[in-house]
Automatic annotation (TrEMBL):
Organism from which the protein derives: Aegilops tauschii subsp. strangulata (Goatgrass)
Record-linked Pfam families: GH3, GH3_M
MF-aspect GO terms: acid-amino acid ligase activity
Protein keywords: Ligase
Gene Ontology cellular component terms for the protein in this record: cytoplasm
Family: Belongs to the IAA-amido conjugating enzyme family.
Ranges where the GH3 middle domain occurs: 212-268
InterPro entries linked: GH3 (IPR004993), GH3_M (IPR055377)
Keyword Oxidoreductase among record annotations: no
Name of the featured protein: GH3 middle domain-containing protein
Amino acid sequence: MGMRLTLTFPVEHTPSGLHVQAATTAYYCSSQFRDQEVGGFDRCTSPMEAILCPDAEQSMYCQLLCGLLHRDSVDHVGTSFANSLVRAIKFLQHNWEEMCSDIRTGSLSGRITHAPLRDAVILRYLRGPDPALADEVASECAAKPWDGIVARLWPRARCALTIVTGSMAQYIPILRSYCGGRLPIVSPCYASTECAAGVNLRPLDPPGRASYALLPNIAYFEFAEIQPRDEETPTVDGDGDPGEMKLVDLADVEIGRSYELVVTTFAG
């Protein structure tokens, strides 16, 4: 069973009335996600009511609480991106005492006011007082510093599963500290709003050396070459137009050169 911390965010609107929302939110709020047991979410500690809760703070509180209630069953801890996992641990650092009180008394904090979420946690997760578990969690959380806190709170976890490449690489040092050096950090895929472009075929390599195999059946991939700083010149297309970036297909990339990935989905 995994502890996957998953949040959805309110839909915003453009001045013309178009919906604007994160790609993950659109998926989690869809019938494809809600009505089908896909991606292992049917085997994670977070209740669906928490994932779909519009209040991010209430959602995070309950997902972490449910993860603690199942601490001996959790085999991995994860979020979509590394920054979310760091935020979750910092949230736990500020709220663990209240969560321990909930576990000790078998009741749910009054801060949880979203009715579907409150009912789900009380009826399916908080099954009476558990002072022994509360003491175990409090003992780990009270210890300073918080190095290794993820491995200590979820002792059977085999990895921390979160994307740590690209702009997320800056969070590798703090995640290594939280994982204590003995819990591998696995970066599972190369993803963007448009699609999941590739998968990590060597997940146990150090996170700073993660590389991905592109999946050419997911979308149409092209590559824009990045010029070294000392060779920066306007990149032109085949017709010599400096206003167009030169793109090459997957079959035409060259070893030793650097590229930015350009994705065209099947929707165009």
